[in-house]
Structure formats: C-alpha cells, structure tokens
Amino acid sequence: MGRRIVTRVFPLALLCVFVLATAAFCGVAVTTGAGYKQMVEDLGRAYRESGGSLEEMYGGPIGQVLVQIKQGSGADVVISDRGALEAASQGLEFGRIEPLGETVLVLAWRKGLSLESPKDLEKREFARVAMPDPKAAIYGRAASAFLESSGIGKKLGDRLAVVSTVPQVFSYLVSGEMDAGFVNRVMVLNGGQKLGGWLEIAEGYPPLRMVAAVVQGREADAGVLSFLEFLKGEKGREILKRHGIW
C-alpha cells in the first residue's frame, strides 16, 4: 500500500527539518510506467545500497500512474518520457523536471528474417508487425508517429498489430508469433541474442527525452533532493545508460 497523505503534513515537515540538520535524509517515493519498471527498480536498489531511503510505487501505464498520484498515491518523483508526461498529465503539475538523457525507438525482428531498413517492413515476408499501444506506451506513440511520417503504416495495413506493452512485443518476437516489432533500447540490450536483429530509428517521431519529474510541492523535500543528486551521479548515470538512456 502507498503511504497515506496524512503522513506528509506537519509532523513530517518537522522531521525533515530535523534530519536536514543532522545531515540525514527523508525517504522518497518513486514511480514510473510499466516499460521502465525494471530500470527504476535497479535505480532504487542502488540508491538504497548507497544509504538512501526509497519506496517504489508501480501502477501500470503512465496515464494510470498519474491518475493514482492525483488520487493521493503519495509518489514524489515520476521517471518517464517528458512527452508522455505532458500528454497524460491530466492537470497534474510538477514543480521540477530533471533531464536524465535521451533514448530511441528500436525496430527488431525475429530469428530467420533479415531487415536492412524500416522500408523492408513493406515486404510481404513481414506478414505480422507489432507495436505497443500508443494510448498507453511511450514507444507506441513513437512508433505510431514514425509509421505515419514515413508512410510505412499505410503500406502495412492490417499486417500491423497493436499490443499492450513493449515487453509483449518482445515476447512475440522471441516466440516467432510476430515477424517484426517496435521496442525500446533496453529490450535489445538485455535480450538481443533471442532476436534475429534490430536497428535504431533516430528520426520521424518526437524526441524521447527521459526525465525525473517532481510532483509540485515535493521539490524541496530532503529525500527528493538526495535522489535527484543520485540520478546525476556516476552510479545513477551508469544504470540509466545500461537501460538505454544516453
């Protein structure tokens, strides 16, 4: 269960003042969408190992996560793509947005096939092409924009299948149920040996800029400031890069 909102009123404010004076830090509650859950888990583990106090909160697609924050989940920091946050904010305001780096859309294909460029998707041998749901996934929105700007989407027609998440696209490629699909960099970095290959797509969609967004009113919390410093430090940057955020 998430922390109760009542724990953030006057008693906690006094506690934060005290721990600041003694060079300690209050904890921080961090959340993200389903596609970056593993990355945030790794960041949280490393942050706790460094002595920080962190609570992880997950709730599915980023839009659902933001709704939960508005309803009082207690999350302090959201790690996600800035465009996705702006599109799904539903009035939720952020007091600080810390840039973490950029990533890209990746086109991958199953073993037994070969692809030289995205235009090869128009070949009939790519009979089943998958993309994440653009209504719920960062990379679904990027894939949708790319397919429209390149004109490839019209050529694919009913060969294009929309599934719920990036991990689902990846699993279909590994099982051979899909011939090609749009995923993220972390999927191919961690499981590329299970695929026939992949290529990064750098253009044709809005930039994928990852950020740590602090819920308005939490930007001065000691735990939040400590966690943001960790993200900018050597260990934080190392984990982000391992997950495709460069």
SSE blueprint and pairings:
Layout: H1 10-21, E1 28-32, H2 37-49, E2 54-58, H3 62-70, E3 77-81, H4 82-88, E4 94-103, E5 105-109, E6 129-132, H5 138-150, H6 152-156, E7 160-163, H7 166-175, E8 180-184, H8 185-191, E9 197-201, E10 208-215, H9 222-232, H10 234-242
Parallel strand pairs: 1-2, 1-3, 6-7, 6-8
Antiparallel strand pairs: 3-10, 4-10, 5-8, 5-9
Helix pairs in contact: 2-10
What does this structure look like?
The protein has about 250 residues and is of the alpha/beta class. It has two domains: about 5-100 and about 210-240, D-Maltodextrin-Binding Protein, domain 2, CATH 3.40.190; about 105-200, 3-Layer(aba) Sandwich (D-Maltodextrin-Binding Protein, domain 2), CATH 3.40.190. Helix content is about 40%, strand content about 25%. It has ten helices and ten strands. The protein has helices at about 10-20, 35-50, 60-70, 80-90, 140-150, 150-155, 165-175, 185-190, 220-230, 235-240, and strands spanning about 30, 55-60, 75-80, 95-105, 105-110, 130, 160-165, 180-185, 195-200, 210-215. A five-stranded mixed sheet has the order 2-1-3-10-4. Strands 7-6-8-5-9 form a five-stranded mixed sheet, with helices on both faces. Helix 2 links the parallel strand 1 and strand 2. The longest helix has 13 residues, at about 35-50. It starts with 9 loop residues before the first helix and ends with a helix.
